[in-house]
Write a structure and sequence with these properties.
The chain is of the alpha/beta class. The protein has 6 domains: 73 residues, 3-Layer(aba) Sandwich (GIY-YIG endonuclease); 62 residues, Arc Repressor Mutant, subunit A; 182 residues, P-loop containing nucleotide triphosphate hydrolases (Rossmann fold, 3-Layer(aba) Sandwich), CATH 3.40.50; 180 residues, Rossmann fold; 61 residues, no CATH class; 87 residues, Ribosomal protein S10 (Alpha-Beta Plaits, 2-Layer Sandwich). Helix content is 31%, strand content 23%. The strands form 7 sheets. Strands 10-11-9-12-13-8-14 form a 7-stranded parallel sheet, with helices on both faces. A 6-stranded parallel sheet has the order 15-25-24-16-23-22, sandwiched between helices. Strand 18 and strand 19 form a beta hairpin. The mean pLDDT is 92. Bound molecules: adenosine-5'-diphosphate (ADP) and zinc ion.
Amino acid sequence: MDRVRLLVFNAALGALDYRVPAGVSVPPGSIVIAPLGPRQILGIAWERERLPANDVPDTKLRPILDVLPVPPLAEPLRRLIEWTADYYCAHPASVARMALGSMAALRGGGTTTEYRLTGSEPARLTPQRAAALDALQGEQASIRELAHIAGVSEGVLRGMVGAGMLEAVTVDLDRPYRAPDPAHAQPVLNDDQQAAADAFVGAVESGGFAPFLLDGVTGSGKTECYFEAVAAALREDRQVLVLLPEIALTETFLRRFEARFGVPPVLWHSSLKSSERRRAWRGIVSGGAKVVVGARSALFLPYKALGLVVVDEAHEVSFKQDDGVRYNARDVAVIRARFEAVPVILASATPALESMQLAEAGVYTRIVLADRFGGATLPAINIVDLRSEQPPRGQWLAPRLVEEMRTRLERGEQSLLFLNRRGYAPLTLCRNCGFRFQCPNCSAWLVEHRLSRRLACHHCGHETQPPEACPECATPDCLVACGPGVERIADEVAAVLPGARVAIVTSDTLGSPDKIAAFVAEAEGGAIDVIVGTQLVTKGYHFPELTLVGVVDADMGLEGGDLRAGERTYQQIAQVAGRAGREAKPGEVLIQTRHPEAAVIAALAAGDRDAFYAAETEARRDAGAPPFGRWAAIIVSSEDEAEARDAARAIGGSAPRLADVMILGPAPAPLSLLRGRYRYRLLINARRSAQLQDVIREWLGALSFPPGVRVGIDIDPYSFV
Ligand code: ADP
Ligand code: ZN
């Protein structure tokens, strides 16, 4: 009798064996429906020897019910799923889930119904219909999705269908994508770019695993270079995956891609409509989706014929996922390329220390673009020492920075102020009694957002309206904002440079592709004089008239003192500096700091990247930090404080004693309350020789916890809160 072992999407069950009915074939990787008790579950057929399960006798096996009409997950992807689960101490089912689109995509075929406005507009409208009419211009989606977009109930929209305001459209779910044309608009590359492109194209054409670190200064044309590798893959009829660190960057990318290849790439991210997701997934599986651009979740999709992987802005910390499977998409992208035997390009102007180290060790081929394209020069970087050049009381911009901005305004050029803090002020307190507004679910202050008139927690999303009086002492009009956020800096700009047109750029203001497109058009069209933004505006953008960058508070990122604080500060400032003077007009950067002597700041001011990497390398070596040693974190949480503490102590109490592993904690996490859960952390520092994951698995595997306790493992952590 034929048995099949299924990886099922329930971590507690793991793998289960089933009987294969006569005449049915279930090769490994097949996606299968099987019975479980009275229910039906989804599973992936797996090699039996690679996945442990209870050996149920043949006679007790139930038969599988259905094999879904999609190609089986290929062997390289199955190995990737296993590798990721093993390395990050996650369950393979949790990783495998990321390979599947939606149930609808698996079923495939057919059509779906979407709705759009007809243009007919009755003379009298209810306020809800009027709002929907406004919000749904240019949209086409299911009733449910439209209701979400418009913020009205589905009932309101059904009524609008009845009234002839919305019409149904039948959409073919599998309609093919137009193929990008590798010869559409080939640029003329300069010598350095050509050398880089030649190396990539050669690697794509010959196939095989080949990891590259494309290390090019901001504005050197890294994108143009890896586009040549994309073109080569297209000519070979292979697919390409391009990973971007955040959705906000896709807008600019799409336009450049379309200019180069004639059609947009296929997008993959969490806010796709269900029909788009389904179409993209099926295109990826069939090979019809040639170039897929996505956030990290695009990494595990079942590409039919992957020929190249690109990770742009590869140093970005947002490639690290901090919940669920805590993987680093940059690192897993390299592993995927290895299993698929294809080239992978990590592109960055400020590569992660880990990547530099691998290049130095000869594992990655490092390709350097040392100059900006087209004769543009890198900006001059100058320090504003806030100890001697103080801003006026209650303000944050030093006189010199304001003067430089004024000069730019008079010349019709743009300035960009960078402060990595959303909202108006990070803390609000009562002048009378000292009361501080804190999140009820998290150990964090509520951030004032003055534009939207709310106090918000940036961790859990909790929001309230700012009250008129102090909730504690009831004194009216006594609340004061402490510290700056981008909104407050924008107010200050408006006060010191009256008439300047100021744009605030954060995830609050640029939440959708439309808004991003509108911002880019305004900035390029000269309708903005001063941009005030968070890290969202530090990369990807190319505004020819932008000639001044001001870093409002260079010390902010250094304060937390976590493992990568120095590196992250260096990268952020170097990236945002890279927005200045990208064309003929030279750029200048002013960095406001109280610690001009700090290694990071000094290296930035001296334009000495090598000095920074050298200092950082030594510091990491001394601390046994990556890439010289390894870190892992265990995060214990529960809604019950005592339960979390006891579980953390039990883990600490049974810690293994090993020569090459050091265990710190348990201690309350810096964010000791998050989303209503109390949190404790243990930090593990190991030599490279240690079998870190095995140690942790064995250690935690021997313990059991009450159902309310969650124990998360974070290998190579980026977050230390
Ligand atoms: P990076 O990603 O390295 O910061 P980009 O790829 O954004 O640099 O290139 C900077 C600018 O120079 C872009 O506007 C790009 O279109 C332009 N550019 C770069 N290389 C070329 C080229 N060979 N021909 C024409 N334009 C180029
Ligand atoms: Zn909160």
